[in-house]
Amino acid sequence: MKKRYLIGNLKMNLNSIAETEQYLVSLKKEIFGKRIDGVEVIVAPSSTYLERFSRELPEPVLLGAQDVFWEKEGSYTGQVSASMLHDLHTGFVIVGHSERRLYAHENDAEVGWKVRAALHENLHPIVCVGETSEEHDQGEAADVVSRQIVEAFRDVPPLLAERVLVAYEPRWAIGTDTTPESEEIFEMRIVIHRALAEAYDPAIADKIPVLYGGSVKASLLDRVCFEPRMDGVLVGRESLYPHELVRMVNLLGEHESLEREPIQEQV
Ligand code: PEP
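C-alpha cells for the assembled complex are given below, as produced in the milestone run.
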C-alpha cells in the first residue's frame, strides 16, 4: 500500500505557551477516533516548543523540527544540534526551507551538511528544493532543482538516502496563494527523480518520497497530490488550523489505495 505524508510546518507561529496548549488540545480533539491509515502525519513546531509537543502530541502524529545545525556541539550560538532533536524524540527535520535560504542565506552546501548531520542521528531529513520566481520565469527551474538535489545528497550513501524525503516547494508558491498546475508539479517530480536516479539508481530514486509544498489547502489536494506518483504535501499556514490539517489527512487517506508505479521518463 502506498504511504503518503502530510507535514505541517508551523513556522514562527503559536507565540506563547497558551497558544501552543490550545493548538495541542484542538489537534487531539480533531484527530481522536479518525482513521488515518496510510498517512504519516508530522508536525514541526518552533524549537522552543519541541519539548512540549514531544510530550503532548496525540498519536499517531509524529514530531518534526524546522531546522538543524550541522555541527555536533560547541560554540554555535543559537543553533540546535541533531542529537538535541533526537533526544526529544524528533523523527523528522526540515532542511533547506526557502525561508532559511532567504533569511539565513543558507546555501546548497550547508543544506547537504545538515542532511548528513540529521542522518547521523537517525532523523529523517525533509529536503526542500525549489526555484525562485525569476528562475521560474527564465526556464531555469529544472537546473536549479537538480543542482539542489545533487548538493543535498552529496556523500549520502544509498542506504541512508532512502531515509530522506524531498519537498518540491517553488519559492513563488510559498505563502502567496499561487499554486502551480498539476502538470508543472509532476514535471518537477520527474526532474527530481532523474537527479536521484543519476546520483544513485532508478530503484533507489523510486524509494525516495517526493512531496509538494506551497500554498496547499484541502481544496487543492487533488491538483497538487493525487497524481499517483506524488507522495504527500508540506503544508505551512493551513497546518495552523488542526481542523484543516486533519481534513487534509482524511482526504489523503481516502487515496491510500493508489498504487505507486515506477516513474516513466516523460520530459
Ligand atoms: C511551507 O512552509 O513550506 C509552506 C509551503 O507554506 P505555505 O503552505 O503557507 O505556503
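The longest strand covers residues 4-9. The chain has a mean pLDDT of 93. Further analysis is deferred to the final report.
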